[in-house]
Design a protein that fits this description.
Number of helices: 47
Distance between the termini: 66 Å
Largest sheet: 5 strands, parallel
Radius of gyration: 34 Å
Strand content: under 5%
Mean pLDDT: 82
Structural class: mainly alpha
Length: 869
């Protein structure tokens, strides 16, 4: 299950009473509201957060707040928190964007941000979005997301970024266009008057003007330094001596003052501060667990009241953190004076987090201890479940911190590692770690998973028929050796054969064995249907429903495909496998389009989660995008399709070099790119790429890819004006597709494909040797929508050009068109040309399709526009 969001990160820190008034800075912040961005950039301790919270309260600004930390460098996590922050001021904002987030992969950045900006623009509401501690963000993709937000920010929304260092945002451009207000250390430093107010009125020190000036000069207006100085001077009699000794660099001063502050606290408070410094944030219960005391809640409230660098994280004053500088110092003192306590403190924190359901934090503290026995035990407990939901990168990072020798001693840990590496596509490493697994020490469930992993790994670089045959033998063996289905609650007895079935179905579809794949899906559904609804293994049932829906869609059985795709969406969503959910939603949108519901298709396409991950964009995600491209082109949304293809991270050559058996996912990227090239009239580039792909697919017996590539190659060759090669490619596609009953692969290519099949059908006539293909061509032509439904978007120049350039009228069609212009009926045209009436009707049908019209009058108007008459 995905980790819950910490709502404390979304709370605006409370404003402390009796703060120093800073009207000059408030005025500058107000001025920034007319521009997209206010940047508050200064070293630590300059009061950035305090200034923003004070401004928001004084001006009654509506604000969304996000306090950032190191873990937010994961793009999916960052965007989830960003949307959650925005929802605190604008309900339901970002819901569509949120659907595109995934625990497995980083989301398609521009797509997610576009949806988010669109939501913000629909009901624009004036508010401020604050990103605090932005210096902790290092991920370039997140900087790109914020840049996109700035470039498309609805005018009522204003972004405030508080950071210790300038972020890699387009600051120079924003400055040049007067779109940026900046507050830096010189702006934030206390003036002499502000220092006097702070030290004498707020801290109650009663210093002379000369003493204030001396402290302020030496601190250079540094607020944290003055605050620490004030804490150190409280209750002292030798103020003059202290002021004289207050000198040195910021680091030296801070070390000195922190020591002074700590030494003046009671031993109990000193212990509390040092022991809890290992925590990024704390509440009373967590503090008690770490310190072994029972007064954590009261102590935190006392520290806050004493202004001892404790920052409340929520309005209820339950969660706190230490000021970052103060925390650094506390941890430094802890390492210097009580290093032997640190492992036990982390173990206690780990135990509390585990008991309260925060597994990730529990493992982090166990590794920090380092208590590898505890950490590995927790990883083993959570690992397989996390892998089921795609959190492979986290597992790989954790296990990398565990000594190799210990990993080798724990078979289940090695298995988790191998599975995570396999999911990440690191096959060689996965194989090496899997070899370390001692199957004798695994239970039935995990041994089955290990065998499944070994099977998948062993067939890399093997052609599809051999892989499928071997996997089927493995499946049969697994069924024969499985115990009776007694534990359906967990589903352990069916999970291995079920997963094997899923892999086999994927490969059968790629190999063009649609009927075998359908049979396998049905057997798999029968095998897994009794797995309990609350079992995480039920997600496999969702996979099978999605694959069966895909097969039914290909056969144009749209109603049944809708039923299974919908079930797949529900199950995959319930168990947080957004990748399959995404694919099913794209499939449902294709079905809506095929049923003549373009609005419904577009709505479903917007809901489709197209997951990515901050790490290298996976081939699996690009596979989903490729399916989206297929629909976008059918909807005449060529620009959108081209944008998606332009974001692919792998070029054709790389995709063509991917090893079997899962090369079909990479080949889908080549096909998507070729589709876009064809509608952009770059026929030669498309043909070259498709020709190479056809050769590769034929060599690997990847018939599913070969059918689609050949059909596209027919369009590309036709666009080049090479009728012979176009026919050759089309015949190959039809010959391979006919035994398995492909339909939508051809129909989804639209009118250009309908015309080519129609011309091919007329050419072969009723030749006995072509009878089988003739019947198949008739079946396909019947599946295309009527010409009246194929009118191109009048606003799309590409649609017009596609009809004109990709499918020019033949000489005979031009002759028929001229006779139509003379006013002749179809029968009269047949007599004039000495052909049958059916032949004339076919020519007229083709003319309508190529011109994108549905009547004689429209055809004549369009023909005159194009100077064909």
């Amino acid at each position: 299950m995905p980790s819950p969001l910490l709502t404390t990160k979304l709370h605006i820190p409370p404003v402390r009473p009796n703060l120093v008034a800073r009207p000059r800075l408030i005025e500058k912040l107000n001025e920034g509201l007319t521009r997209p961005l206010t940047l508050i950039s200064a070293p630590p301790g300059f009061g950035k957060t305090t200034l923003v919270t004070t401004w928001l309260e004084q001006q009654s600004q509506t604000a969304a707040w996000l306090s950032l930390d190191e873990r937010d460098n994961d793009l999916a996590r960052f965007l989830a928190y960003l949307i959650a922050a925005l929802e605190t001021v604008q309900a339901d904002v970002g819901r569509r964007a949120l659907n595109r987030l995934d625990t497995r992969r980083v989301p398609q950045l521009e797509s997610v941000m576009t949806l988010l900006c669109n939501d913000l623009a629909v009901n624009p509401r004036a508010f401020v979005l604050v990103l605090d501690d932005y210096h902790l963000i290092e991920a370039q993709t997140i900087h790109e997301a914020i840049t996109f937000l700035l470039d498309h920010l609805p005018s009522p929304l204003h972004l405030v970024v508080a950071t210790r260092a300038d972020p890699p945002l387009p600051l120079a451009r924003l400055r040049a266009h007067s779109q940026l207000i900046e507050l830096r250390a010189p702006d934030l430093r206390f003036s002499a008057d502000e220092a006097t107010t702070f030290l004498n009125q707020q801290m109650g020190l009663g210093l002379t003007a000369e003493q204030v000036a001396a402290l302020d000069a030496r601190a250079e207006g540094w607020i944290a330094g003055l605050q620490l100085a004030a804490l150190s001077m409280q209750g002292r009699q030798d103020i003059a001596a202290f002021v004289s000794a207050f000198t040195g660099s910021h680091r030296f001063v801070l070390d000195y003052l922190a020591e002074e502050v700590l030494q003046r606290q009671t031993p109990e408070i000193q212990n509390f501060l040092l022991q809890t410094s290992i925590l990024d944030q704390m509440n009373g219960g967590l503090s008690d667990a770490v310190t072994g005391r029972n007064d954590g809640t009261q102590t935190l409230a006392r520290l806050e009241k004493a202004n001892l660098f404790v920052v409340p994280l929520d309005d209820a004053r339950q969660w706190y953190r230490y000021h970052h500088l103060f925390d650094d110092l506390l941890q430094s003192r802890l390492r210097e004076s009580r290093a032997e306590q640190i492992p036990e403190l982390h173990r206690r924190a780990s135990a509390w987090y585990e008991q309260n359901g925060f597994v990730i934090e529990a493992i982090d503290h166990a590794l920090a201890a380092p208590d590898f026995d505890r950490a590995t035990h927790l990883i083993e407990q959570a690992g397989l479940g996390m892998l089921l939901h795609g959190e492979d990168a986290t597992i790989v990072e954790w296990i990398a911190r565990v000594p190799d020798e210990l990993v080798r001693q724990r078979p289940l840990l090695s298995l988790c590692h191998a599975a995570a590496l396999t999911s990440a596509g690191k096959i060689e490493l996965a194989s090496a770690h899997l070899a370390q697994v001692d199957n004798a020490r695994l239970d039935v469930q995990t041994r089955g998973i290990a065998d499944l992993l070994q099977t998948v790994i062993s067939f890399y670089r093997t052609d599809l028929p051999r892989t499928i045959e071997s996997l089927q033998a493995k499946l049969e063996s697994s069924r024969n050796s499985s115990a009776p289905l007694a534990n359906l609650q967990a589903g352990f007895d069916v999970i291995v054969p079920a997963y094997l079935t899923v892999v086999i179905v994927m490969l059968q579809i790629a190999a063009g064995l649609l009927r075998d794949a359908t049979d396998a899906c049905c057997r798999g559904l029968e095998m897994t249907h009794a797995v309990a609804a609350d079992s995480p293994w039920r997600v496999v049932l969702g996979f099978l429903h999605v694959h069966l829906a895909d097969l039914l869609y290909e056969w144009n059985e749209l109603s049944a495909a809708t039923q299974h795709a919908t079930q797949g969406v529900e199950i995959c969503r319930a168990w947080h496998n957004e990748e399959f959910e995404s694919y099913a939603l794209v499939l449902l949108s294709q079905i809506k389009h095929a049923q003549g519901d373009p609005t419904g298709a577009s709505e479903l396409l917007e809901k489709a989660a197209l997951p990515l991950r901050e790490r290298e964009i996976s081939m699996e995600v690009q596979f989903v995008h490729a399916r989206q491209v297929r629909l976008l082109i059918a909807q005449n949304r060529v620009d959108d399709a081209a944008r998606i293809v332009g974001e692919f991270q792998t070029d054709d050559q790389t995709c063509l070099n991917i090893e079997q058996p899962f090369a079909f996912k990479a080949h889908a990227v080549v096909l998507a790119r070729a589709r876009v090239l064809i509608v952009q009239r770059e026929f030669e580039r498309a043909a070259l790429s498709l020709q190479v792909l056809c050769e590769r697919a034929q060599a690997d017996v990847e018939i599913g890819t070969l059918v689609e590539a050949s059909a596209l190659l027919a369009l590309a060759r036709h666009g080049q004006g090479d009728a012979a090669q176009a026919t050759t490619a089309l015949i190959r596609a039809l010959s391979l597709a006919e035994p398995q009953g492909y339909v939508r692969t051809f129909v989804d290519l639209g009118e250009p494909m309908r015309i080519q099949i129609s011309e091919f059908r007329l050419e072969i006539g009723e030749k006995s040797e072509k009878e089988r293909l003739a019947k198949y061509a008739d079946k396909l032509l019947a599946a295309f929508p009527p010409v009246a439904e194929l009118q191109p978007n009048p606003e799309s120049e590409i649609s017009d050009l596609k009809s004109e350039i990709i499918n020019p009228l033949s000489e005979r069609e031009l002759a028929v068109l001229r006779l139509i212009a003379e006013g002749l009926t179809n029968q009269e045209i047949a007599e004039r040309l000495v052909v049958t009436l059916s032949t004339v009707k076919s020519h007229v049908y083709n003319i309508y399709g190529k011109l994108g019209v549905s009547s004689r009058t429209q055809a004549l108007v369009r023909a005159r526009e194009r100077k064909l008459l």
